[in-house]
Amino acid sequence: MTAGGARRAAFASVAAALLLIFSKAAAYLASNSVAVLSSLIDSSVDLLASAVTLFSVLHASKPADRHHRFGHGKAEPLAALVQAAFVVGSAVLLTIQAGAKALDPQPIANEGWALAVMGFSIVITAILVSFQRRVVAATGSVAVAADSIHYASDLATNAAVIVALVLVKLTGSVWWDVGLGFIVGLWLVYSATRIARGSLDLLMDRELPEESRAEIKRIVHAHPDTRGLHDLRTRSSGTADFIELHLELEGELSLTRAHEIADVIEQQLRAAFPRAEILIHQEPAGLDDHRLDHQIARGA
C-alpha cells in the first residue's frame, strides 16, 4: 500500500465524519442530551481535522522540487498539530455546554433512538479506525496516524455516552449526562496531548528511536571494511526518514573502492529502512576533525 492508501484513508475519514455528524445531530435534537451533544461536537471537529488531514496527505505526497529538496513530508505533522488544536477547542466548548446544563438541568428524551445512533457511530468508527491502522502500518503516514488516534478516542467517548444514557434511563438523574460531558472533555485534552507530542517530535527533527539507531550501527559495523562510524544523524519528516553518517575507512583505499563499500552499506540500510533517504560521507579512519558527537558529548 503506497501513498494512495493514505489518500483513501483521508477520504474515508471525511466521509465517515459527515455521516456521523448528520446522525448525531438528529439524535441530539430528539434527546437534548449533553452526552450526545459532546459526541456531535467531537464529530464536527473530526470533520475539520479530517479535511486538514486530507489536504496534508495530498500535499505531502508531492515529490521533492527545487524549493523543497527534502520533499513535502512535514505537511503531515503540521496537520496533526492543527488537529490537536481542534481537539482542545472542542473540549473547551463541550465543558462550557456541560457547565450550562449543570446550572439548568434538562430532561433527556428519546433515549432509545439516541442509544441506537451512538451504537451505529461505534460501528462506523471502528471500521474506519481498523482501516486507518492498516494504512499507517503500510505507509507510516503521521497525519493518518493522528487522525486514527482521534477516532480511536471517539470509540471510547461513544461507549461512554451509551453508558451515560443507560444510567440516566435507569436512575432518572441527568447528572450522569452532565458528568460524562466533563469526562469526555478531559479525554479530548489527553488525546490532543498525544497528537501534539508526536507532531512536535517530527517538526523538531527528533532522532529515530534508539533501537533504529542501534540497527543502523549494527549494519554499518557488519561490513568487513568498516573501521568505524560517527556523527550518525537521523530524523523523520512524516512520510520519509533521513539517515546521515560518517563512515570511517582505511585511508589508503581508492576513491572508487570507498564508493563501492559505501554503496553496499547504503543498499543494506535501505533494505532495513525502505522509507529512508541515506547520505554516507566517507573519510579516513583516525582522522582528528570536528565532530558533532564530540559537541554533543561536551554539551551533555
TrEMBL record:
Residue ranges of the TM segments: 35-58, 78-100, 112-131, 151-168, 174-196
- PANTHER family xref list: CATION-EFFLUX PUMP FIEF, MITOCHONDRIAL METAL TRANSPORTER 1-RELATED
A Pfam family found in this protein is: Cation_efflux
Give the record's family classification: Belongs to the cation diffusion facilitator (CDF) transporter (TC 2.A.4) family.
Which residue ranges does the record assign to the Cation efflux protein transmembrane domain? 11-204
Q: Where in the cell is it found?
A: Cell membrane
Q: Which residues form the Cation efflux protein cytoplasmic domain?
A: 208-284
Q: Which GO terms describe its molecular function?
A: cadmium ion transmembrane transporter activity; ferrous iron transmembrane transporter activity; zinc efflux antiporter activity
Q: Quick one: a GO biological-process term for this protein?
A: intracellular zinc ion homeostasis
Under what name is this protein listed? Protein p34
Topology class, membrane: Multi-pass membrane protein
Q: Which GO terms describe its cellular component?
A: plasma membrane
Instruction: Name the UniProt key words of this record, in alphabetical order.
Output: Cell membrane, Membrane, Transmembrane, Transmembrane helix, Transport
Look up keyword Membrane and say if it applies. yes
